[in-house]
Amino acid sequence: MNTTVVAQLQRQFQDYIVSLYQQGFLDNQFSELRKLQDEGTPDFVAEVVSLFFDDCSKLINTMSASLERPDNVDFKQVDSGVHQLKGSSSSVGAQRVKNVCISFKECCHVQNREGCLRCLQQVDYEYKMLKTKLQDLFNLEQQILQAGGTIPQVDIN
Amino acid sequence: KTTLVELGRTLALEECALWMPTRTGLELQLSYTLRHQHPVEYTVPIQLPVINQVFGTSRAVKISPNSPVARLRPVSGKYMLGEVVAVRVPLLHLSNFQINDWPELSTKRYALMVLMLPSDSARQWHVHELELVEVVADQVAVALSHAVILEESMRARNLLMEQNVALDLARREAETAIRARNDFLAVMNHEMRTPMHAIIALSSLLQETELTPEQRLMVETILKSSNLLATLMNDVLDLSRLEDGSLQLELGTFNLHTLFREVLNLIKPIAVVKKLPITLNLAPDLPEFVVGDEKRLMQIILNIVGNAVKFSKQGSISVTALVTKSDTRDADFFVVPTGSHFYLRVKVKDSGAGINPQDIPKLFTKFAQTQSLATRSSGGSGLGLAISKRFVNLMEGNIWIESDGLGKGCTAIFDVKLGISERSNESKQSGIPKVPAIPRHSSFTGLKVLVMDENGVSRMVTKGLLVHLGCEVTTVSSNEECLRVVSHEHKVVFMDVCLPGVENYQIALRIHEKFTKQRHQRPLLVALTGNT
């Protein structure tokens, strides 16, 4: 095991994850999630996150369909979709996605189709962005593990 | 003295006298006469021509019986004074003579020996007698020197003895003083701590009651101040015992990994408020179970990490722990991990205000505060680092701080020696890297629970949390499924209450109904809501 390589990777990992928190992509919930992962459940975070992204994709499609025809928008359905999304994003600590959902909900309440469409677009953008970032993060984790190191514990507030 | 006696006898002298230079060196004092009594302090100036003449040669010189150095007895007209001879006696230069800046000191000092033939004897000094006198003069010189040396050494010995006695007395006094101080501290400490604890305890209780905002603020200040005071008292006691050398480490076996996490947990509340992420990095070869003074090691780490958090306004903090190899910073401090011991190195890096490299040595001094530290309203007692340094030294280690300058953060590093416990560290020897595990809460092990949540992601997260706590979790995604699946085996049912309304309450009622017959087996219902 090359200790300098491991140390470098760990440093990279630390810096990257700290930057994700500082830029608001992730919040404390994510670090709580990481704490739940141990030898018995080594892929817990990856599984939850993957499920979340699948959820995002499905919900966004459904909501997009509902918002498509301007004269026949089922705001109730959209609202329920946003509600689900808000819940999921809270559970995994996807802060930016969650924040968009809050505005999205408002638009649904006042039945603002234009607003909803904008929020939908933003949610789509945010979840895809987060997906890429987390992918990079997991890659770094794998590199560290393969080099024989351990993943640093990072406490975020 | 004996020499002069023998000389007097051998040569049948009437008188034999020895003149010694006085301390001032300006006079010769009559120090010894063989037969006649001589007045004390009888002196003659040293610069007399006759004396200079005698001092100028190593030969014995005939002098007039009337010269001042020869006039030792009452003069009576009847007597025909015998011939007198004088010879110089070289003196050993002793550095004990007081004043050091006299020009005379570079020249040789002499004493004067005066020998007088009996009066009315018509004897004259013969050459062989003179030769004898000259030889004897040298002997006398040696004898005089010996006498002086002996005197000096006696004096020195007495002085030493006195000093020893004084030192011993001083030592005993110091010991008594230390004992008295320790007793005082111990008693006062207890006396001071009791009211201190009362203040802290009652203020804490007061905080729990109904208070106006102003009152609450006051109580919080009281609490903070008393805690600070309590810490100060502990610090002072510790430090005084550390300085005596009377403090001893309390060794025991403990879990090093857990210790680090505990420290982070303690610091977390402050870091939360300041929005400072803290990273912990434990090296994979770091032993888990070690032997050492757990409480004091924790104190050191807490102090260092606490300082890092305290003096950082933004940025992040990283704590790294590793087993150190022999290339340490300090070349004199050679680190050799022996069989059952190793050296732990802990590095705490912060991105705070940094420290001026010139101020670094002052950091470990008690109570000293540098300019940059003093401008912050720090609550530090000033003793923390000094105590940490002493503990580190007790643990046969080293502590230092590096900083690239003001504004560039700083890194505190320390090494300490710890023992490796026999308890299994085998899990660390396997090549499989592990994510550090948080110990499971044993009181929930095997507890059967049911989780009901429509949201797949939330359901999975809740399940993960409960599994981590040791529960056996079943999940359902709808109210109907919940009613179907719930059984007497489930001790707790977690229900997501997302939509306000009657629905959830109905479900709760129906679960309740299901178990009316077996009331004692009814599960505990817990509502989960994420509605913020």
Could you give the count of β-strands of chain B? Answer: 17
Structural class of chain B: alpha+beta
CATH class category label of chain A = Mainly Alpha
* Assembly annotation: heterodimer
Order of helices and strands of chain B: HEEEHEEEHHEHEEHEEHHEEHEHEHEHE
Share of residues in helices of chain A: over 70%
Which structural class do you get from the secondary structure elements of chain A? mainly alpha
CATH C-level name of the domain at 248-326 and 340-370 and 381-420 in chain B? Alpha Beta
Which chains share the greatest interface? A-B, 41 and 37 residues
List the uncertain runs of chain B.
Answer: 101-106, 327-334, 369-381, 426-441
Rg of chain A to the nearest angstrom?
18 Å
Under CATH, the topology of chain A is which?
A: Four Helix Bundle (Hemerythrin (Met), subunit A)
What is the CATH topology assignment of the domain at 248-326 and 340-370 and 381-420 in chain B?
Heat Shock Protein 90
Description of the structure:
With 157 residues, chain A is mainly alpha-helical. Chain A has a single domain, classed as HPT domain (Four Helix Bundle (Hemerythrin (Met), subunit A), Up-down Bundle). Chain A has six helices and one strand. In chain A, helix 3 packs antiparallel against helix 6 and helix 4 runs antiparallel to helix 5. Chain A is elongated. Among the domains of chain B are: 123 residues, Beta-Lactamase, CATH 3.30.450; 150 residues, Histidine kinase-like ATPase, C-terminal domain (Heat Shock Protein 90, 2-Layer Sandwich); 81 residues, Rossmann fold. Chain B contains twelve helices and 17 strands. In chain B, strands 7, 8, 9, 10, 11, 12 and 13 form a seven-stranded mixed β-sheet that branches. Chain B has a six-stranded antiparallel β-sheet with strand order 3-2-1-6-5-4, with helices on both faces. Classes of the chains: A mainly alpha (157), B alpha+beta (532).
Summarize the structure.
Chain A contains six helices and one strand; from the N terminus they run H-H-H-H-H-H-E.
